[in-house]
Amino acid sequence: MFVNRVMGGRIGLVDISAQIFTDNPLKDPTLPALSTKETQFHTRNEPKTAVRNKEETKGNQSFIAKRLEIRTATSRRAAMAFLYLLLAILMSLGGLVHGQFLPKTPSVVENGSHVSALYIMGDSSVDCGKNSLFYPFLHRNLSLLPCNGSDSTLLPHLLAQKMGLPNSPPFYRQNGSIEGLRKGVNYGSAHATIISPRSHSHQSFNQQLRQVYETFQLLLLQYREDRAQDFIKSSIFYLSFGKDDYVDLFLRNASGLMLKYSGQEFAHILVNQMVNAIRILYDANVRKIISTGVLPLGCTPRVVWEWYNSTAIRDEKGCVEEINELVLQYNTMLNERIVELNVELPDAQIIFCDVYQGMMEVITNPTVSGFSDTKNACCGLGLHGAEIGCVSAEMTCDQSSAHVWWDLYNPTQALNSLLADSAWSGYPLPGICRPITVQDLVYPSGSHLT
Q1: For the chain, which end, N or C, has fewer CB atoms within 10 Å of the first or last residue's CB respectively?
Q2: Region Disordered: start and end of each range (predicted)?
Q3: Least confident residue range of 13-22, 228-237, 337-346
Q4: Overall number of domains in the chain
Q5: Are residues 133 and 37 in the same domain?
Q6: Is pLDDT above 60 for 88?
Q7: Do 208 and 340 fall within a single domain?
Q8: pTM of the full predicted structure?
Q9: Are residues 76 and 111 in the same domain?
Q10: Is the domain of 47 the same as that of 169?
Q11: CA 323, CA 302: separation in Å to the nearest integer?
Q12: Residues 72 and 116 in one domain
């Protein structure tokens, strides 16, 4: 698979330490040289042995042997000191020489977690529109500010804080340093889809996978293979796709999708693509994965506004049931396949986080969680704040924490914080992440309690 191919084709890193040791004979310039008399005595072959006193000869030879023994011992100590110094230099250079000294990440050192970094892939649920080279000035959704100011208000970044990890910076803002990649990366892009779009207005899942491969290549080239593999295995990959496949492709009947496929068939296509991507990541040594479902699109301000004059059935909460049923088909199918993958793939830890379930609990009983408005966008104009999206921060409401929805399709920071708490510990919205909580993924066997 990918990692094996990368390893097979990687540039060989020459282990130069042995060569340095053998190519640099160790000498001690501080030791005095043998005297001329001693050297001459040691090398000459005088024929006047009859007149030489044997005891004097024996004494001189003993003296020379002792000097040589001292010289040898001192040279050996100097050699060992030099070797230790050279070894220390090599260790400090790390990957520049051997590529084998991968520094521990802050999470391992500071809080004892089992996670090295967080890598994020997804759509506008993980990106505020800053992670694209060609983000359109005014997208068809008419919302330039799909977040409460920054990516730090989104669910994966709130979870990163709980893990003790820094926010994963956007892929396109990386400076090429291995240190930056080692802290985690956000490959997500607003309006990214699982299905590869025909236009270039937004990214696809496959494009983000290619960016992940580039990161893996750099890790494998920089560090020793087993170290790089361990780092990848101990990192978490967060996947959040599907919303924009329904918003931008299916519901708009892009390329005639609604005419070609039923809701169940479309969900089946999306889930198969997600499962294939998870398998690819697994073959690249990824073992810890969080995959989220799609939020209740039928309750979003934009969908409620677009279907306002239609004959579509609405539930008691004012949500469009037909749209929510489409999303439920996808979520249910993805959850079932993840259960199968956890059994099929050895050592895999794949969590399904059901944001649909969590949000519907809030929409059904908003006051329990401290919300008062479940229909209107905090930032937008028109009916439900959904006719024109959030194009200016001056359009925002006074109390965003009372709203479930931030703009046309995205929840507020307050709602994301509630989901993050529940995904992390199972409280106050139990069971939205399964089979385990995110905290259990980060701290196996309750190690955070010790």
Answers
A1: C
A2: 38-58
A3: 13-22
A4: 2
A5: no
A6: no
A7: yes
A8: 0.76
A9: no
A10: no
A11: 12
A12: no
pLDDT of residue 16: 24
Both 164 and 60 in a single domain?
no
The predicted-structure confidence for 322-378, as pLDDT tens digits, reads as follows: 999 999 999 999 999 999 999 999 999 999 999 999 999 999 999 999 999 999 999
Same domain (yes/no): 27, 140? no
